[in-house]
Amino acid sequence: MARTSRAFRQMHAIHAWTGAVTALALYVVMLTGAVAVFARHDLAAWADPAVNAETDPGFSAERALRLSIARFQAETGAPAGSAILFFPQPGAARAHVSIMAAAEDGAAGHDGVDYRLDAGRGTDASAVVGRAAGDTERLYQTDWTTPLGSFLVHLHTDLWLPPPWGRYLTGLLGLTLLISALSGLVIHRRLLRDALLLRWPRGRSARWREAHKSVGAWGLLFNLMIGLTGTLLSFAAALLLPIVAVIGFGGDVAEAERVFVGIPPAAGVERPTADLDRLMADVSTRSPGFRPAFLHVHHLDDAAAVVDVTGFDRGAVSQAKYRFDGATGAFRSRLDGLADDAALSKTLAMLLSLHFGNFGGGLVKAAWALLGVASAGLVLSGLMSWVERRGRLVAGPVGSAAGARLAAPLAAQAGKPAGRRAGAPAGTPGRAPSGRGYGLLARLAGGVGVGVPLGLAGVMAAAHPMAALTPSSAAATGALTLVFWSLVALACALAIALRPLASVLGGLLTAVAICLLAAVVARGFLAGVWPWHSLAEARWSVVMTDLVLVGLSGGLAWAGLRLARLGLARRAAGERAGAVVP
Amino acid sequence: MATADQGPTRPLFPRRRLRLALAVPGALVAALAVTAGLSLYAPVGQVDRILLPVILFPFLFVGLFFFALMAPRVRWVGLVFALLILGHGALIARGLG
């Protein structure tokens, strides 16, 4: 019994400390992830009105590829080794063709150029609307969608830290999410009751705790899934796959790549690759309702060429791959996973789809976004609950001067500074944060908690002005990054410096509301596209985005003003009673 | 870590700093060693021999993390981690050599 109780207390401490140490970074990743699920298509269509909603009926995979190859060869003078075509998706007719130069040993090259195509214009020369050059990692970072989409995706995947450190950090955050979710499952023994009962107890600390438990119970499976898939996504490509491939194949990287991707080396004999439109028609015949995601041509115009068409069969959660002989166009096989029909390969492919919710359409994405916001709230409520509890143990309500005044004589009596560890025996040196330290942490958490939404709203508001001011998408993305971090830093500084905290946070929430509304207005003025224009053109994803922005703006303005008034009223009441309100 | 409520004789996490070092960097190194070594002996096909260790990595790390913090004796943790790292290190050296 004693052992069980001790293990329970240990698990509780692990849950609390893991969450407390990583909460703020995890909050940024989770909240931006909730927005980033829309980044590639819906927000791309919203952020760039030049992107047509519908793909031109004349759009041709074959012509898009040949147009891009011709440009690549004219620009670089290098032979094209392989090519990947990312198909336009419903609601945003943006396509990409990445051309990779051929490596000398016939293996896949890793340097190339990515061309952005507006598939709404068909596939003539005017369809190419942008380019980015570099290695595969650079191409992934640069501009897959729009500056707004690129900013959001990379804030979520690597916090804009240099590769591979950003990925390592988000991978570690995924592991801590797994640890928090598993330890939370063990310590919350009345999980079902917590999930079904929503209580609103008296006291700020108890309310944070109840909110944390309820949201944690409802979002447990989602958080386990996000933690696991996020860790795999971050670590797999940047660290694990290269290590395992090299060791599992005795250091022969080319052989590892060949087995993993399932593609033999180039033959070195020139032979034109089969018409891609014919292969796409073949896939549609084999799988009616197939939704293509991308097409990969290995060893372009070589006798050993292989064409993989990857996408979703109707109603499928994981992607399937249709493989063709590139030289003859003959169908070879349908693959469930990465390289063969192995169960694990299929599992991994399914896990990756699960992380982004890119199956089942808009409703699944909306559910993922809501769960992501709830999980971000879960992380923040856990931190606030921890801060309140620890701060109260040390020196009364966090950050209160009254609490600090109470703690000071007690500390003096014990002959220790006021900040010694709560409950520690007299004589233990004080190394834990003082009551003032916890107060500062609470303010910082509040600042980040409202600062990240403020940064995201500011980025939405700045997206169109930046696009108008800077022709380069890389410069626009950099400017958006600056806007985001400046607003987060400003919110933190205000939350730390000004009092009362509730009024500051209320004011910042109102600023978020203003930025969200400004985003819709800026789009209307600068792009000349107001919500009613999108409605008339039946661009539903754009209409939904505008509606969500306006709705959120109204809700946050109401909540912000109410919170600001509440803070001022509390301070006035506190001053009348002679107390200091944090 | 939270030693406060347990009294001076029995802290919740004895030898806290050592356990923390074992739980975070130690568990990471051990999980990476096992992940890398698994690709040499996992009884599955060629492609899954790459994928199985990759998918197992988060589970390995989390298991070792909890073990490092909660095991009754920290020397058991050290022993298990040393065996995992050295054993798989030797396997990897043999595989690459």
Automatic annotation (TrEMBL), chain A:
Coiled coil stretches, renumbered: none
Keywords on record: Membrane, Transmembrane, Transmembrane helix
Spans traversing the lipid bilayer: 12-39, 168-187, 217-250, 366-387, 440-463, 475-498, 505-526, 538-561
Tagged with keyword Transport: no
Keyword Cytoplasm on entry: no
One Pfam assignment: PepSY_TM
Protein name: Putative iron-regulated membrane protein
Organism: Rhodothalassium salexigens DSM 2132
TrEMBL record, chain B:
Regions that span the bilayer: 20-44, 50-69, 76-96
Keywords: Membrane, Transmembrane, Transmembrane helix
Keyword Transmembrane helix: yes
Name this polypeptide is given: Uncharacterized protein
Species per Swiss-Prot/TrEMBL record: Rhodothalassium salexigens DSM 2132
